[in-house]
Design goal:
The chain is of the alpha/beta class. Helices cover about 30% and strands about 25% of the residues. The protein contains 8 helices and 13 strands. The strands form 3 sheets. It has a 6-stranded parallel β-sheet with strand order 9-7-6-12-11-13. A 5-stranded mixed β-sheet has the order 1-3-4-5-2. The relative contact order is 0.16.
């Protein structure tokens, strides 16, 4: 069944009306017919089954027939501070991390970034948001992951997170502090909050790691093999949610 994220306000209308790109996708791309069913997601954890009852040139009207709590949303809240990467690598990291279960993304500019301009990063926001939404629809997420404004790494390291947040930095220079050992002491029962910092193609500079330590962020190793910058965040999120019993 095809899935679409719509605003919570849209459900105040009966039937629900989709316009713009979503109406175009229903009519021209998917070529859905009257009577076919889709799944509508409100971005707040609920899903609805809806029947296509009218289809115009500019809109599609759907009648909601059933509503339930979407099962695809993890209790563990992961914020991924992913260094902005060249080419399509950053978009790939967003897509796959959304599928795994990351809740929030913060595009980050580090000392060794190839892409090192905040305005250039923000200029790609619309595309990145579309990629996140399409991935969330495909995999059945109940909430649309947040894409925060791009930040310089020192700014991202220095802010005060919510109390009890576990802050980690995936760093190839760390040998002793293993991610699985850190997670062994984490209480996942009520939904943990975890931040993961992942560096650019050239890795984190030593002074960045030192700054992270000063703010209580723990460098961790993901294993004996050095992962690509676009892969490390996906692997870290997978390991975290596996430890939480959610994969």
């Amino acid at each position: 069944m095809h899935r679409f994220f719509v605003s919570p306000e849209a459900f105040a209308n009966h039937p629900v009306v989709l316009t713009g790109d979503q109406a175009h996708q229903i009519r021209r791309v998917l070529r859905l017919r009257l009577g076919e069913r889709v799944e509508l997601l409100d971005g707040q954890g609920y899903a609805c089954e809806a029947i296509l009852i009218a289809l115009g040139e500019a809109d599609a009207k759907l009648q909601v027939v059933k509503r339930w709590a979407a099962p695809g949303e993890p209790r563990t809240h992961i914020s991924l501070f992913q260094a902005v990467l060249k080419g399509d690598n950053f978009a790939w990291a967003l897509q796959k991390s959304t599928e795994v279960g990351v809740s929030r993304f913060v595009p980050t500019i580090c000392a060794r970034n190839v892409v090192d301009d905040l305005d250039a990063a923000e200029g790609k926001r619309d595309r990145w948001e579309r990629i996140i939404q399409e991935a969330a629809e495909q995999c059945g997420r109940g909430r649309l992951p947040e894409l925060a404004p791009a930040e310089l790494l020192p700014q991202a390291l220095s802010y005060q997170p919510e109390k009890g947040t576990l802050r980690l930095m995936a760093w190839e220079g760390e040998q002793a502090n293993r991610l699985r050992d850190v997670l062994a002491g984490c209480n996942f029962t009520d939904g943990a909050r975890i931040e993961v910092f992942v560096g650019p193609e050239g890795g984190f500079a030593d002074e960045e790691v030192a700054t992270a330590r000063r703010y209580g962020i723990q460098p961790v190793t993901l294993g004996p093999r050095i992962l690509r910058a676009e892969t490390a965040g996906v692997v870290a999120a997978t390991l975290i949610l596996c430890a939480a019993g959610e994969i």
